[in-house]
């Protein structure tokens, strides 16, 4: 099959329940696809899709969505509106938001990540990008933290951020984390613009990161606070 697109008139198929467009040459979906209110199964694997329209969130009866082996780097925020979704396949995409490892964990993991994104838990400031310090900790059995750190590194670099010290800092001690933050805060950010400090999976079994209590970093574009509860806030 060599179909490169779907016609906007697809919205007229209001009784359509299943749509199989696997192994074509689709580069985009029409926004009208969101009007297929009775669609329960959608197969799009093996195409050339680089993004999904936000209108896909209108498919509130969709139970299965397979979009493997495409070129998606992110899912639209409206994806969380697919409240009937039970099965999803995203392997073979260069996904970063959510990370492909998250997508491989299934529908619940995808929805949680997208909801976190919508609440600003993975902030990308609007100002000129500068350095980003990424610290991940998988020493408590949270191997996904390492994957998340690497995926976020790729995401930030795609927005032209520079990784602080050219790496993701993995499994550092509390003192090492504090030293990194203070070294970052001492830099001149006048030209570099915004700076992000992102902790993922850092903490002890009680949810705190021993040795870091109320650590403040005063930066021109952002103030980062890492408190004893393990939360990183961006006022």
Poorly predicted regions are: 205-235
Strand content: 15-25%
Distance between the termini: 51 Å
Helical content (DSSP H or I, runs of 4+): 10-25%
Assign the structural class, choosing from mainly alpha, mainly beta, alpha/beta, alpha+beta, or little secondary structure. alpha/beta
Overall strand count? 11
Q: What is the general shape? A: elongated
Q: If helices are DSSP runs of H or I spanning 4 or more residues, what is the number of helices?
A: 4
Spatial order of the strands in the main sheet?
1-2-3-4
Radius of gyration: 20 Å
Q: What would the average pLDDT be, to the nearest integer?
A: 78
Spell the H/E element sequence: EEEEHHEHEEHEEEE
User: What's the story with the biggest beta sheet?
Assistant: 4 strands, parallel
Q: Any overview of this molecule?
A:
This protein is of the alpha/beta class and 235 residues long. Strands 1-2-3-4 form a four-stranded parallel β-sheet, with no helix packed on it. Strands 5, 6, 7 and 8 form a four-stranded parallel β-sheet that branches. 19% of the residues lie in helices and 17% in strands. Strand 5, helix 3 and strand 6 form a beta-alpha-beta unit. It contains four helices and eleven strands; from the N terminus they run E-E-E-E-H-H-E-H-E-E-H-E-E-E-E. It is elongated.
